[in-house]
Amino acid sequence: MAEVVEMVLAQLVAEQARHLPDLPVLTFVNVLPNDDCEEQRRTFREVHDNGQALAKALIELGVRRDDKVALMAVLRPAYAQTCSDPDDASQSLKESVNYRSAAPDPPQRCQACAFFAPSSPAGCGRCQILSGPVDAARHCDSFTKKT
Question: First-to-last CA distance in the chain?
Fold first, then answer.
């Protein structure tokens, strides 16, 4: 009889990300008004990396092991990803420009910055100054208003 190994979902995803990183594991189908379908896929690597980034972001917010966290939302591809960047070099750069979750002046969010380019409907984008993804609702000291 085969040995039964108990794992939590995060361990299963991490294991598959090591062995089959480019295998699609999630598919989101959006039916468009003209009845065409649009698919978005996520690989084991993407699901794992996004989960790790979300875990890091929660830790940075003060969430600890055994704390309870709830998410109430409609299932959309946006919830399978996060704009957090787990790369330490990127994190260091973000700290150097005081990249933070709340803009002191709401019109100064990343989405209104000249250096920001949106890259997904989830509110993520790329910044010309910061490496890695950034959240459109955040802010940093390098904010420059789009003209």
Answer: 68
Q: Is 19 left (phi over 0), alpha (psi -120 to 50) or beta?
A: alpha
* Segment-wise mean pLDDT, segments of 10 residues, the chain, 147 residues: 73 90 83 76 86 82 83 59 54 78 80 84 76 78 88
Sign of CA dihedral 138, 139, 140, 145: positive
Kindly state the helix (H) or strand (E) to which residue 38 belongs, with its residue range. strand 37-43
* Residue 86: predicted pLDDT: 44
Q: What's the count of helices (H) and strands (E) in the chain, helices before strands?
A: 3, 5
Name, in order, each residue with C-beta under 8 angstroms of 47's C-beta and a sequence gap of 6 or more: 13, 17, 25, 26, 80
